[in-house]
Amino acid sequence: MTAVNTVLDHLQTGSSLTIICHSDPDPDSLSSAIALELLAIESGIETVDILYGGTISHQQNRAFVDRFEIEPKRYSEALLYSNEISAFVDHSLPGNHNPVPEGTHLDLVVDHHPSAQPVPAAITDVREEYGATATILAEYFRDSHIEITPRVASALLFGIHRERLDFYQQPTDREYELTSYLHSRADVGMLRDLYGASFLPSSVDAIGNVIHNRVRRGSVLVSCIGRLENRVALAQAADFLLLIEGIDTVLVCGIVRDELRLSGRTIRPEFDLGVYFTQVFGDLGDVGGHDDMAGGQLPVAAFDTEAETDVELVAAIRKRIEDRFFDAL
């Protein structure tokens, strides 16, 4: 039995479905959610709730939700348990980058991220060799009798592009194969506005600080800034710095409330940044990621500084981060 048939058979065991995106859902997660929603409805599901637990603050993610008329709801345990079937898309472990209690058993998980622990679900389709979860969902439609709509095809196409193709972040042959399938079924006009989505003013300020505070050693850049409101700006800044000529690895960090948030990027083909983050910062907090992008959150208290002001705190953390990252490289 193919993967899509297994998923469709399981969807037919209930009449309602809860789909949980990871915190701060991106186009890969959101497009996968509405794709699974369509598969569920075509399989006889009557009620579908799409949940998320963090924020949707990246300008393209907000525009994505508006353009595709997605209505995600804030996570609550009541909503999690109110439907018969539960599913994760683009993440796999309860309590890891999502507000679902650890140990919660799920019905279905579709993801492309590697998992260090067994996935607690009845049906799991975790494909580490794929570059995006949206690629897996696109394959479901291609291999099933269910016809994809222009809305879902367009959303999946954008999700794959943002996850892999726009930055050539090691896309696999499957991404090119499935985007070809989606392109002929998508409304490309729906996508044009998304690439022109504007930045939040707070993001522009944070990116400016990242640029100003960058430190370079060889082909590596590190930039640690102070407090910021929108942690998504760190990922945006990391993407931007990686475009600098001669740079192949970037680490950006900043303080959000009581945590130091990390965002890393690399284009070194032999490098696994997720593993590297775990080795360098794993003793301080929760870190991990892919071979070409990684992130994490470290409690500020883990740095055990004697700083009395924010200026002293940032200076102390910046030195620790730069020393660890550069020295290990």
TrEMBL record:
PANTHER family noted in UniProt: BIFUNCTIONAL OLIGORIBONUCLEASE AND PAP PHOSPHATASE NRNA
Transmembrane spans: none
The DHHA1 domain, residue ranges: 219-302
InterPro entries to which the protein is assigned, alphabetical: DDH_dom, DHH_sf, DHHA1_dom, Oligoribo/pAp-PDE_c-di-AMP_PDE
Record domain DDH: where: 18-160
Record-linked SUPFAM superfamilies: DHH phosphoesterases
GO molecular function (one): nucleic acid binding
Name of this protein: Bifunctional oligoribonuclease/PAP phosphatase NrnA
Superkingdom, natural source: Archaea
